[in-house]
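Worked example 3. Consider a protein that binds TNX.
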Amino acid sequence: MKNKFGFAGILALVILQIGCTQQPSTDLSETAFIPKPVSVDVTGNSFELKESSVIYYEESVEGLQTVAEYLALEIKRTSGVNLKVESTNATPKKGVYFTVANEDSELDTEGYELNIGKKLIAIKAKTVAGCFYGVQTLLQTIPEKLYAEDPIEFATGIIRDFPEFGYRGAMLDVSRHFFNVEEVKQFIDFLAMYKMNILHLHLSDDQGWRIEIKSWPKLTEIGGSTEVGGGTGGFYTQEQYTELVKYAQERQITIIPEIDMPGHTNAALASYAELNCDGKARELYTGTEVGFSTFCTDKEITYQFIDDVIRELAALTPGPYIHIGGDESHVTAHDDYVYFVNRVQPIVLKYGKKVIGWDEIANAELVDDATVQFWADVENTTTGVEKGARVIMSPAARAYLDMQYDSTTHLGLHWAGYIEVDHGYTWNPATLVPGVTKENIIGIEAPLWSETVTNIDEVEFLVFPRLPGYAEIGWTAPEKRDWNEYKMRLAKHGKRFEDLGIDFYKSNQVPWEE
Ligand code: TNX
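Given these inputs, the predicted complex is written out as structure tokens:
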């Protein structure tokens, strides 16, 4: 009797254990969310998505269908299962349901509540953007690759979440080396996975002009014809650029176009002789020096040119900002620089956009609603704040994606130091620069300059695994961030990177999980 009872007990234990190991997906707290959400409440069951499940979205909410279809496409990509997407005007009993509701004030404009029940996954937000972030969170609860025979199971629970900053961006320099439409779309997908909402495109520099301007066609004909190292370069037609803007919009990402000036302009100066003070066109440039070029700041044609460029660019830009560069104009006299920046800013306003510039523009008078992008100079940035500007934090020594990880990694530069994964993560935008507080900051941006970066594999190596860290700095409050805890979550994303075919840097700071 005693023996029998003991056997049954052991059997029960074994069954219990098998049960536990077979259902890892019932514990939502095991998911390595990046960025870390505000709250995760575990309810301990699981939701099974079937081929017959339907993804519903609330009828008459503009843009919500796109989010529902995005989820369907992602499920198809990871599992091969094709789900139906339908609109509805009542909360369904089962399936997935997107709704936009106004009453939940805590959620703010980009927040969401993801409620995974046994029968229904409900994603509620104040905006379509919030719903989209709910999708990204949901997708992180399942593996990147599912096999046909696997059930698609989601652990149940409730996640409520909203971001620390409204501006969470990355920059891609498409001028030093050109990246085509497909490559930029891939970059956009990387940002979307981690709830980033800004893609700043550095569209012009000494080495290349990358956006078609119909009223000045030689910019791309000549200025777009090469790149660093002498390759063939390239440019986006206005149709291609519009396609990128739309692709980004569908992923809740705003593209910010930058035309860098008055320095970093050799490609334009090579295309049109009249933009040079001496009236002579410059040679095309394929090296990597900075600071040798300048528009002629006292010629009227310069401002007619800029007016045309900004007019055409603004017409292609649904987002609120145009970036006017302004960095490293080493051969522009100080007074000429100030005069130039003072004249260019109102042109941006005239076409209905707000000004962003690198921190040097704080030396000029700043128009209302101007934003300075801190990259290197603390004094410029605090001057900008004193003049009423807002700040984007892109400290080169912490946030530059083109800095090498350490002295053994070769891709990238190291003028601002090496940025290992922990160094990129362990800073607080609101306390990094004395005199620049959270109230002054709209968010953060991690720029990827492309002097040394020639293709998407190289982009991936520099971007991963640092990008998720920048996304978390932008999204998650500093008191909820801790490197030792973060690196364990990041470790679980290695498999995800591999399944996505991302060539990431396997930093030995992170205990990668196979
Ligand atoms: C500085 S950051 C630059 C760029 C270079 C970059 C390389 C900034 C506003 N200017 O022109 O590409 O360093 O890291």
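Take a moment to read the result before moving on. The pocket of TNX is lined by residues 290, 327-328, 358, 375, 400, 402, 413, 449, 451 (CB under 6 Å). Residues 1-5, 9-24 have pLDDT under 50 and may be disordered.
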